[in-house]
Design a protein that fits this description.
It catalyses: allantoate + H2O = (S)-ureidoglycolate + urea. This protein folds into 2 domains: 163 residues, Galactose-binding domain-like (Jelly Rolls, Sandwich); 154 residues, Sandwich (Jelly Rolls), CATH 2.60.120. The chain is built from 2 helices and 20 strands. It is 5% helix and 40% strand. The protein is globular. With 344 residues, it is mostly beta strands. The structure holds allantoate ion. The site of allantoate ion has 7 residues, from strand 4.
């Protein structure tokens, strides 16, 4: 599940993929999927292709593919996002679809805090985020979005038919404030936590360690390269909302021969936005950690924080990182304002 970083891609691709299966998204419905199943659209890994792989219905593709259309109209698929969010850009990846990609696509969205059925979605009111636009085959097609509202579902339309390997919907999580009460994971992507800096994401990105649930394998965590120079690897995360950390989880499961020897977690209140002058305070002083073990620690400091820095020594990977605590009252009020202000 490697989270490769493409330096030439637009900046919005560094934001959370709200449509990823890793975040809990699903492909609710599609009008056709004869050649290849719609669920492939949201696989977190890069699309693959096997020249020799044919099934009963034709060439096997790692994507969503409809039949050749013989009637007027167009094909579509609907994705329920893993969490609601403001969408900053969309990637329609037609990897491996060369003679069967859709020449045009469009993206619409809707916002609902209900669990809408496929039937309800079919008759719902959709807003256009990307008007009908050209797409090319075997490529990542990037579309910037400037709308400021939050959305819960997107509809990808393809004209007239064809195949799309992946749909990535990048943006900022807008957490439902009703679920920010009590003890929550302040760094969880589903609560708005996000990676802002890292020393090295050679094999896979630290953005994965804040995804929901347990890691499925080593590829579902953060793995840097073997460090051959001085220093140590690190990742800096913004918490979804300012809060007080009470206990932490440093989970090295699946990292058997490549777990860090030691880890340290420090926190800062960067409410002024100046990360470069942040003053970091240890919430977990540097300590030895075990391989392949979910380790829980009490926070050594009670302080309000907006950002957290995870240092690993000298290098090494983690599968999950959790920071349990309470969102501060003013941050929860701000989240409620954001939920209301951005709703459509
Ligand atoms: N070689 C193909 O990909 N052909 C067809 N698609 C599949 N999946 O077989 C088609 O017509 O698009």
């Amino acid at each position: 599940m490697s989270h490769y970083v493409d330096e030439s891609a637009p900046a919005f691709t560094l934001l959370t993929d709200l449509a990823s299966r890793q975040l809990g998204a699903s492909v609710v419905s599609a009008n056709d999927e004869l050649f290849a199943q719609r669920e492939n659209l949201i696989n977190p890994w890069a699309p693959s292709f096997d020249q020799a792989d044919f099934g009963h219905k034709g060439k096997v593709y790692d994507g969503w593919e409809t039949r050749r259309r013989r009637q007027p109209g167009n094909d579509w698929a609907i994705v329920r996002l893993g969490t609601p969010g403001v969408i900053r850009g969309v990637v329609v990846d037609t990897a491996w679809f060369r003679g069967n990609y859709p020449p045009f696509i469009s993206i619409e969205a809707l916002a609902s805090d209900a669990y809408l059925s496929a039937e309800e979605l079919a008759t719902a009111k959709w807003s256009t985020l990307v008007a009908k636009s050209t797409s090319v085959g075997d490529s990542k097609n990037y579309f910037q979005v400037s709308d400021q509202r939050w959305w819960s579902h997107v509809r990808l339309s393809i004209y007239p038919d064809g195949g799309v390997a992946r749909l990535r919907v990048h943006g900022e999580v807008v957490a439902d404030p009703r679920f920010l009460s009590g003890t929550v994971d302040l760094i969880a992507a589903e609560n708005g936590g996000r990676l802002v800096r890292t020393s090295d994401a050679f094999y896979s990105s630290p953005a994965q360690v804040i995804m929901p649930g347990r890691a499925q394998n080593m590829g579902d965590g953060w793995e840097n390269a073997r460090r051959r120079e001085d220093g140590n690897d690190f990742a800096v995360f913004a918490l979804g909302h300012r809060g007080t950390i009470r206990h932490l989880e440093v989970d090295t499961q699946y990292f058997v021969g490549n777990a860090p020897g030691w880890a340290r977690v420090s926190a800062a209140d960067v409410s002024d936005g100046d990360l470069d002058s942040a003053v970091w305070t240890d919430v977990l002083a540097k300590r030895a950690v075990l391989p392949d073990t979910r380790q829980r620690f009490l926070a050594e400091q009670s302080m309000e924080a907006t950002h957290v820095r995870l240092d690993v020594y000298p290098d090494g990977g983690l599968s999950r990182f959790r920071l349990w605590g309470e969102v501060s009252d003013d941050a929860r009020a701000a989240a409620a304002d954001c939920w209301r202000a951005h709703s459509s």
